[in-house]
Amino acid sequence: MAPLKVIGAGFGRTGTISLHEALNILGYNTYHMACCLKDESLDIKPFKEAHRNPEAIDWDKPYEGFDAAVDWPTCTFYKELMDKYPDAKVLLTVRSPESWYASVCKTIAPLAQRYNEIKSERAKEVLDVTLKVVLDGIFADEERMKDEKLVQKLFTDHIEEVKRHVPSDRLLVMELGEGWDRLCQFLGKEVPNVPYPKLNEAASFQDRVSKHLNDL
């Protein structure tokens, strides 16, 4: 189904689960890291290769069957994806750096730091990709994760970089908890007759952990 029509440049833990569901409601088939746990046929190796040499990747392959993508690892490669898909719109989901830091400290970081305890080989593979391509593996580094100011700065630096890099006519910045109106206007879609998804991302993450990681 590629090429991508929508590229999510926002980090995980910024409402990407809800956005994933919202885009699907709007008619897109949306890629999210959680898809890789549910569908083992999805090839995630290209993302590791792209971390070393992004110019060598045929981006149609990892996104085959999808026309929108959010969350990690997509947001790491938003520049390359913008170049590959020049008509794609870019969504940047944001929240306060303090609340984002608190969220990753409760979810991704503890899991990353228990990598060797994971029993599912597929889950290990997915997490390994995340650790390779996201912020130089910081989530697995307990000491660096304790540096609240450092981690928050990495988050805000990414947001500012996206705002600088993406032309204003291709970019929508969405605050955590926003609804349909601006999103649908930006994408040229009718507002659905259902509420905007407001999924509990932390609870959803923990559910995926217990379901796909064989009860750590």
TrEMBL record:
What InterPro entries does the record tag this protein with? P-loop_NTPase, Sulfotransfer_4
Q: Which domain of life is it from?
A: Eukaryota
Protein's UniProt name: Sulfotransferase domain-containing protein
